[in-house]
Amino acid sequence: xxxxxxxxxxxxxxxxxxxxxxxxxxxxxxxxxxxxxxxxxxxxxxxxxxxxxxxxxxxxxxxxxxxxxxxxxxxxxxxxxxxxxxxxxxxxxxxxxxxxxxxxxxxxxxxxxxxxxxxxxxxxxxxxxxxxxxxxxxxxxxxxxxxxxxxxxxxxxxxxxxxxxxxxxxxxxxxxxxxxxxxxxxxxxxxxxxxxxxxxxxxxxxxxxxxxxxxxxxxxxxxxxxxxxxxxxxxxxxxxxxxxxxxxxxxxxxxxxxxxxxxxxxxxxxxxxxxxxxxxxxxxxxxxxxxxxxxxxxxxxxxxxxxxxxxxxxxxxxxxxxxxxxxxxxxxxxxxxxxxxxxxxxxxxxxxxxxxxxxxxxxxxxxx
Length: 368
Fold this sequence. Notes:
The protein is of the alpha/beta class. Helices cover 35% and strands 22% of the residues.
């Protein structure tokens, strides 16, 4: 019975995943689901699907199956009372919210976009040590005494010596019977990663452009968290100056001022210098802008910083350019001229929310 229920549940989960895959492009471009994100779960609205669930009635509300009933009591209380109003002749569309773990969501993303698993750079292995209980020994601290094995040894000794009375069973361990858990230290290689997001918040980057960045970074985060067990995220905003901020500020700060992109790249390089040795970390840097920099001289300076300070130390550098009414978009062309064939540089043009799906595949499709 329980096995059949588990099989039914597993089949149901596969149906859900299939439904999400069919509409993944829509979900990616829709920010509504991000608002339903919990610590480890995310709720996704699925139309026209019935979820199997048990419902428990309120105690003391009357009705058959809820205590003592009287003749004429309804089977379920309030049936027919809900949804009162003018009658109609069209069927309703029933939307259910399905909870998925972020790991399940990442699996769906990877399967649908055909994303390869990331292979961490060889030198970025951190070894953590953990104690694991692996056996039993005769000596050890009292806190690790294995009581079941101790009494088992005592019983064996009493049976062999004829001291055990089956009529009055009593097991009394002596010192030689004591057994203790033993352990050894296990080394686990772990790959740690850091994501450094940079975003232009100058006057030409409005709420619509920042919403595109918010959606895209959510999906990038989801995939990279699935690939790495230990991951850190840092946020940089810039107009004519750059500063590090928290996530909430990153997406809510009001746009203002001019644009000097190099200030963000300088700060990114300083953060890597200070906190993330390339020998120990997989480093990802993403920059989002409308491509309107203040001068060609600064464009050239950005190229120099990337070439000498950032690219030698990162797994990949991604530049996503969102369209803006007032943005010139020249920076994308400048980077393409210099880094169009560079193995670590990935450029993506994001004109609107519908383009986020393809942009994610641009950034993550090479398994860097």
